[in-house]
Backbone:
C-alpha cells in the first residue's frame, strides 16, 4: 500500500499541517528568460518538509516555468537550488527524479499511443538486461495493475491505449505515475484543470493522502477553494517573482482575490501611464 | 488511502455499455475480430488477394525461379521500409535512404580500388553511411529543420557525389567471387535472408526494447516524452543512423548481386517504395504508430506487384500506371478495413 515515501525523514506534519519547519527545498534568485521574454526575475522560495505549498498567479507569470526548473526540464539562467541544504544542479528530468523530485505536468506528459501500463512506466521501463534492454512487459503490467488497484484508480483495461481513456482517467494515470515511486517532493502543475467534480475528488483525496504520509508538495492551481483545502501555505507569483507568502490559516480567499485584483489594477494603470508618455 | 473511485462506466457520456467481468481483461476474440483488429491483417488480406490473382493469370508464379526473382525485388524494399518505419514512428522521414543505398557500394569500390582489403572497405563504407545518417539527424534535430527537407537535400548531394567520383561511368563491383559473394548477395537466398534478419532486429527493437518504447513515445508526444526525461533528440539521431546503416548494407548486397554499380540511378526510386511499404502496412505518417510486420507485408505486396506485372507481361509503358493504381486501391481497401477495425474495437 505504498503511495509515498516511508523513508521520509522527520516527524509527521504538525497538527496545523504546516510542515516540520525544516526546509527541504529552497531557491535563491532563480531567473529565466526565453529570448526577449523574461519569465522569472529572481524567485526566492522555500518549501518545508511535509508541507503543501500552493503557487498562484495569473497566466504567464512564470509558475509553470518555475516548476519546470525545479524538476530539471529547464535550466535556470541564474540562481541556486538547495535540496535538503545541499546545492543541486539538475542536468535533466531524470537527474531531478533521482533526487526524489517527481512532477505531474500540466499537459500530463502521457503518450496516447502507448498502453496504460507503458505510460505508468514511461522512461522507467523494467528490463531484463541493463539500461537499453528487453522490456519486461509482463512484470510492468502486473505491478501497474496492483498499484492502480491499491490507490483505487479504476481504468477499463490496463492494456488499453491511453487515447481511449477519459480526461479524468488520464489525469489519474499521470498522478499515479508521479506517486508510484517514493518521491520526496511532488510538483503538481494544475492537477485539477478541466476535471469534473467526481474526478477532482479522486485527485484531492490522493493529495491529502500523500500529505498525511509526509510528502512535500508544490501545487499550482487557479481554484482558491481547492488550494485552501489542500495547502498549508500559499505563494503568489507576480511578474516573475514571489510577491506574497502567507500561511493559509492566516489568509483568506478574499484576501488573495483582492491581491490579484489590485495587481491587475496596478498593471492597467501602469499601462495607461506608459501610453500617456 | 484515497477513497474516491474513478468510475469508468457510465460516467463519460456516450460511454460503451459496461463490459462484463469476463471481458475486462482479455475479451475473447473471434477469428474475424482478430483479423480486423490486428493492424497488419488488412495488408495481409490485400497481398494474398494479389498473389491469388497473379497465380491465376500465370501458373509459373509459384515456380522456384519466380520466387527467387520476387524476393530480390522484395528484399531491399523490406530493409529500407523497416528503417523508415522506425523513423516514421518518430514522426520524421528519411528521403535519403535510397541515395545511401546507392552510394554505399561506391564507397566500397573506391576504398577497395584504393588498396583496402574488401572486408575493411565494406566496414569503412558502412561507417561512412552511418555518419551520413548521423548528420541527417543532427541537422534535422539541431537546426529544427524538417527532416523531409534535410534528407531530400542529402539525397541530391549523394547523387551528385556519386556522379562526380564515378565520372558518370559504370564499374564492376568487387567481392562477387567465391563464398564471400554467395553469402553477401550472389546466393539465390542471400539478400532475402539478410533482409529478414534486419527486419527481425528492427521488429525486436521497436516492440521489445526500451529504446523502441522511447521511439513510440517521442513520435506520439514529443513534449510529453521530453518531460518524462526521454532524450528525444538522441533517440531521433540514433534512428537516422540505424536506417542509414540498414540501407547501406542492403545497397552493398544488391551491388554484389548485380555485380556492377551504375551511377545514374535515382535514390528516390529506391526509398519511396520503402515508405509506401511502411504506410500500406499500417504505419502512420504523423508518428506514434507503426508495425514492422506490417511493413514487411507491405514490401511483399510491392514485390509481388512488380514481379507479377512482369510475369503476366504488362508492357513497360503500362507498368508504372498499373503500379500506381494498385497502390491507391490497396490503400483504399486498407483504410476502409482500418475504419471497420476501429468500430469493432469500441
Residues:
Amino acid at each position: 500500500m505504498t503511495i509515498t515515501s516511508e523513508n521520509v525523514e522527520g516527524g509527521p506534519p504538525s497538527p496545523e499541517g504546516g510542515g516540520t519547519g525544516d526546509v527541504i527545498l529552497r531557491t535563491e534568485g532563480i531567473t529565466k528568460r526565453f529570448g526577449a521574454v523574461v519569465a522569472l526575475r529572481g524567485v526566492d522560495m522555500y518549501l518545508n518538509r511535509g508541507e503543501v505549498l500552493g503557487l498562484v498567479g495569473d497566466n504567464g507569470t512564470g509558475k509553470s516555468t518555475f516548476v519546470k526548473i525545479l524538476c530539471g526540464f529547464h535550466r535556470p539562467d541564474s540562481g541556486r537550488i538547495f535540496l535538503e541544504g545541499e546545492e543541486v544542479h539538475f542536468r535533466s528530468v531524470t537527474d531531478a527524479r533521482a533526487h526524489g523530485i517527481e512532477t505531474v505536468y500540466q499537459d500530463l506528459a502521457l503518450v496516447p499511443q502507448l498502453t496504460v501500463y507503458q505510460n505508468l512506466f514511461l522512461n522507467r521501463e523494467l528490463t531484463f538486461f541493463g539500461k537499453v534492454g528487453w522490456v519486461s512487459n509482463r512484470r510492468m503490467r502486473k505491478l501497474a495493475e496492483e498499484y492502480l488497484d491499491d490507490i483505487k484508480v479504476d481504468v477499463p483495461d490496463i492494456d488499453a491505449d491511453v487515447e481511449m481513456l477519459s480526461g479524468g482517467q488520464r489525469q489519474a494515470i499521470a498522478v499515479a505515475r508521479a506517486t508510484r515511486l517514493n518521491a520526496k517532493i511532488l510538483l503538481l502543475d494544475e492537477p485539477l484543470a478541466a476535471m469534473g467534480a467526481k474526478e477532482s475528488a479522486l485527485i484531492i483525496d490522493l493529495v491529502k493522502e500523500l500529505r498525511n504520509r509526509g510528502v512535500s508538495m508544490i501545487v499550482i492551481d487557479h481554484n482558491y477553494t481547492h488550494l485552501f483545502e489542500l495547502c498549508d501555505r500559499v505563494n503568489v507569483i507576480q511578474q516573475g517573482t514571489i510577491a506574497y507568502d502567507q500561511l493559509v490559516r492566516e489568509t483568506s480567499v478574499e484576501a488573495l482575490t483582492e491581491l490579484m485584483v489590485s495587481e491587475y489594477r496596478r498593471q492597467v494603470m501602469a499601462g495607461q501611464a506608459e501610453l500617456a508618455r | 488511502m484515497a477513497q474516491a473511485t474513478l468510475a469508468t462506466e457510465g460516467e463519460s457520456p456516450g460511454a460503451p455499455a459496461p463490459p462484463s467481468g469476463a471481458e475486462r481483461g482479455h475479451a475473447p476474440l473471434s477469428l474475424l475480430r482478430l483479423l480486423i483488429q490486428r493492424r497488419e491483417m488488412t495488408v495481409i488480406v490485400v497481398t494474398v488477394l494479389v498473389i491469388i490473382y497473379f497465380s491465376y493469370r500465370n501458373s509459373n508464379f509459384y515456380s522456384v525461379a519466380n520466387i527467387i526473382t520476387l524476393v530480390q525485388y522484395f528484399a531491399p524494399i523490406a530493409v529500407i521500409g523497416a528503417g523508415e518505419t522506425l523513423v516514421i514512428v518518430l514522426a520524421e522521414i528519411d528521403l535519403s535512404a535510397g541515395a545511401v543505398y546507392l552510394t554505399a557500394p561506391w564507397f566500397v569500390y573506391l576504398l577497395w580500388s584504393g588498396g583496402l582489403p574488401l572486408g575493411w572497405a565494406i566496414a569503412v563504407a558502412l561507417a561512412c553511411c552511418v555518419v551520413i545518417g548521423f548528420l541527417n539527424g543532427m541537422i534535422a534535430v539541431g537546426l529544427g529543420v524538417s527532416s523531409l527537407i534535410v534528407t531530400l537535400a542529402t539525397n541530391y548531394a549523394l547523387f551528385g557525389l556519386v556522379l562526380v567520383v564515378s565520372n558518370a561511368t559504370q564499374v564492376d563491383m568487387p567481392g562477387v567471387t567465391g563464398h564471400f559473394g554467395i553469402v553477401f548477395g550472389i546466393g539465390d537466398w542471400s539478400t532475402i535472408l539478410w533482409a529478414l534478419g534486419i527486419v527481425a532486429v528492427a521488429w525486436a527493437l521497436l516492440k521489445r526494447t526500451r529504446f523502441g518504447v522511447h521511439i513510440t513515445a517521442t513520435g506520439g508526444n514529443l513534449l510529453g516524452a521530453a518531460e518524462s526525461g526521454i532524450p528525444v533528440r538522441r533517440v531521433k539521431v540514433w534512428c537516422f543512423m540505424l536506417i542509414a546503416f540498414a540501407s547501406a548494407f542492403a545497397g552493398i548486397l544488391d551491388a554484389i548481386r548485380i555485380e556492377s554499380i551504375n551511377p545514374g540511378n535515382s535514390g528516390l526510386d529506391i526509398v519511396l517504395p520503402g515508405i509506401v511499404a511502411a504506410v500500406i502496412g499500417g504505419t502512420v505518417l504523423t508518428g506514434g504508430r507503426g508495425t514492422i510486420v506490417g511493413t514487411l507485408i507491405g514490401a511483399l505486396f510491392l514485390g509481388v506487384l512488380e514481379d507479377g506485372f512482369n510475369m503476366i507481361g504488362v508492357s513497360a509503358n503500362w507498368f508504372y500506371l498499373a503500379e500506381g493504381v494498385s497502390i491507391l486501391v490497396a490503400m483504399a481497401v486498407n483504410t476502409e478495413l482500418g475504419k471497420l477495425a476501429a468500430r469493432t474495437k469500441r
Notes: The beta strands of chain A are 23-34, 37-48, 52-56, 78-83, 86-88, 101-104, 185-189, 216-220, 233-238, 241-247.
